[in-house]
């Protein structure tokens, strides 16, 4: 009887699949491909298209600090359990330090074994890398780092877009709001409304992401040329191998531990991952990551605290970049960098890799700062990697995004703050923007 009724009942209407050409990831890939063609075939045109990428990045930067403030404030103040907030923060920071250390070790080991810079015999005096890049400010100590966490004013932190300072102010504001109890509800509701408004803005901004990727890639290819971009192919090949090893040796088992299929997770965030390949800026996808992680079933307080913190402290791909490129430049310039010096370099990188949170192009400045701190690798040697930095940054920003998503899920698992049924349903069906 039951079987007959079931057999006779109408099937649930299936939602029509969105045409592939309307998928943002596909559109961004088309933009990248067209950008390469224009940059190569019409470099005089491509050289003037960088403004498309700049406008997109500026539009995102315009709201990203406010989104961090709203996400952190709403997430923490909604909990009203400051002990839980502290526990989440400590667990997240411990996880970040362990994983970034693994990243640095993998980068150092592989670049020492394959030695891509050996035999180049570059004279640092012959290099011309540009003023500010080759002459960084003095190396900051740990005390300077701690002082820099605290803004001189909240307005200054937002105006500079300093994620670390915005994060510190947001946590303090949220804790103060949580201490007020029910009296904080009107402010909390307003913060939630502002957050939804900012996400609407980002949704509209994302529509020009393919144009931004097109302009950025066209400019890169027109300025450096395909020949220049492949002249240091060995370093590129070694670095991409290091990235693959990090995914296989670290992110894959950690994802398994979190109960997540890494390939399905990457598919779910494919639009964001493809976008950062073109823009080389993880800032450009922060709002989308926040929304999607909550949609995967991760509690808002975990997402609101872990993801912004990860943007400053969990630079997995950037650590791979710093470790491999630093040793490559030492090999290329003949600097004597033994294992003891490389252990010291690792310790320096654990600090300097926390700078430049998500800002496009900041890795070059932080790399120069790191080299100056070693007192062995010529800072002017940074000029060697300027031509291929875009290719390398595409891989390490991609890795940063994937690592931050995995980190949020791991901390969510530790806090029992993940709806497992919803998580697996979303990953199995894939992201549907219309849902």
TrEMBL record:
Q: Which Pfam families match?
A: SDF (PF00375)
Its membrane topology, per UniProt?
A: Multi-pass membrane protein
Q: Which domain of life is it from?
A: Bacteria
Zinc-finger found in the keyword field: no
Query: Which keywords fit this entry according to its UniProt record?
Result: Membrane, Transmembrane, Transmembrane helix, Transport
Localization recorded for this chain is: Membrane
Q: What is its main location?
A: membrane
* Residues forming coiled coils: none
InterPro entries cross-referenced by the UniProt entry? Na-dicarboxylate_symporter (IPR001991), Na:dicarbo_symporter_sf (IPR036458)
Which residue ranges traverse the bilayer? 24-43, 55-76, 88-111, 163-180, 205-226, 232-254, 345-371
Q: Does the keyword Zinc apply?
A: no
Q: What is this protein called?
A: C4-dicarboxylate transporter DctA
